[in-house]
Amino acid sequence: MNIQFFECSTKFDSDFIERTLIDIACIESGMLTKNKIDNKKKFFDFINLKKGIPIAIPYIPEILDSNSIFKIELSDYSNIIFGKKSEKYIGTKLSYSTNLFVSNYKIKSQYRIIIDNYIKEILDTKFKISQLKNKYKTIGAFQTRNIPHLGHEKIIEMMLDHCDLVVINPILGPKKPGDLNTERLKFIYNNILKSRFNNRILFIPLRANMFYAGPREALHHTLIREWLGFSHFSVGRDHAGSDNFYRPEEAKNNLKRYQDLFNIKILYHNGAYFCKSCNKIILKGSCKHNFYELKEVSGSKLRNCLKSYKTYEYASKDVQDWSKQNIKTLY
Question: SS3 breakdown of the chain: % helix, strand, coil, rounded to 5?
């Protein structure tokens, strides 16, 4: 579609613009080059789950110029990436604001600076992992953006049984009200928890977007961690899902179908619980007691306790004490 025959009157919010700039950086850095969509036919090729998430660049005149535009309708976009009946799903709402996408583009100068900075962040992350590989034979990536509770600590313990080092590697996109301050989260891992794990954990975030695409995103995240140079990646219950849109085991079970495609090793788990009979935090399936003996460890309950200055029974006291003292700058 030639641009001279079309006017774009859509107003885009700042978060959607930031997501678009991050997606462009992910493509241009080399991390998601294979995911770039420049025509409608290529988008439909991604019906194959093993390709990960298709990255189509929306036509936003504020940030780019283009003379080559194609359309992807909302129903097609949501069904391919998120699955049936997902037009109102949070993932669709975050990543789709127009049906117009560009085949090629020229970024306006003020936004080129932002994209180049994002590219530098992505390549810096990849470089840090490459440097760590000189010291550690096996390095695992743990995708989490939450204040760590005892369930997170149990997953790290499991990963350290397989890896010399575990990198807390959250994906960072646009911030929303209630999101954690990245520097504060980094402090918790590097200054409170690191010594607990004999200095075998590090916090290294990655500039990219979350899509909340569940099964497809579990595979997408695995491809990203393989590109970064990790030897292992952890995938558990309801990976990259939201609002109970996907079945809890769906991401993990789908990923198992494609695990032979990867050189990276995937460490599966079924989520962390408190077992009443064992009287300790366990990963589901690691003890013989039935589900009725298990109590879920909840990140949302931890956050609510911290905000009301209460103590959550399934999180470390030192993490909670520090978080309460810094609650005004934690979010």
Answer: 45, 15, 40
Q: Choose among 263, 233, 239: nearest CA to 167.
A: 233
Instruction: Give CA–CA dist 263/147, Å, rounded.
Output: 30
- 242: alpha, beta or left, given left = phi > 0 and alpha = psi -120 to 50? beta
Fold designation for 120-330 = Rossmann fold (3.40.50)
Instruction: Please classify residue 300 by burial: count the beta carbons closer than 10 Å to its beta carbon, then call 0-12 exposed, 13-18 middle and 19+ buried.
Output: exposed
Q: Tens digits of per-residue pLDDT, 165-222?
A: 999 999 998 876 677 899 999 999 999 999 999 999 999 999 999 999 999 999 999 9
Would you say 206 and 224 are in contact if contact means Cβ atoms under 8 Å apart?
yes
Q: Which of 52, 69, 331 is nearest to 208 (CA)?
A: 52
Torsion of CA 268, 273, 278, 283, to 10 degrees: 10
Q: Are 101 and 69 in contact (CB under 8 A)?
A: yes
Question: pLDDT digits over 19-64, tens only?
Answer: 999 999 999 999 999 999 999 999 999 999 989 999 999 999 999 9
- Which residue shows structure tokens 């962040």? 121
Instruction: Please name the residue ranges forming H helices in the chain.
Output: 14-28, 40-45, 74-81, 90-95, 109-132, 150-160, 182-187, 214-228, 250-258, 299-307, 317-325, 327-330
Taking the whole predicted model, whether its pTM rises above 0.90 is answered as yes
Strand partners, 9: none
| Residue 240 C-alpha from the chain's centroid | 7
For the chain, residues classed under CATH 3.40.50.620 are 120-330
Tokens standing for residue 255: 């990923």
Give the other-Cβ count within 10 Å of 23's Cβ: 24
Q: Which two tokens stand for residue 110?
A: 């003020």
Q: Is the dihedral of CA 160, 163, 164, 166 positive or negative?
A: negative
User: What token pair was written down for 225?
Assistant: 């961690």
Give strand pairing partners of 69: 102
- Say what the pLDDT of residue 33 is: 98
- Alpha carbons 182 and 26: distance in angstroms, whole number: 20
Q: Cα–chain-centroid distance for residue 277? A: 34
Candidates 233, 280, 270; CA nearest to 249 is: 270
8 A C-beta contact, residue 147 and residue 184: no
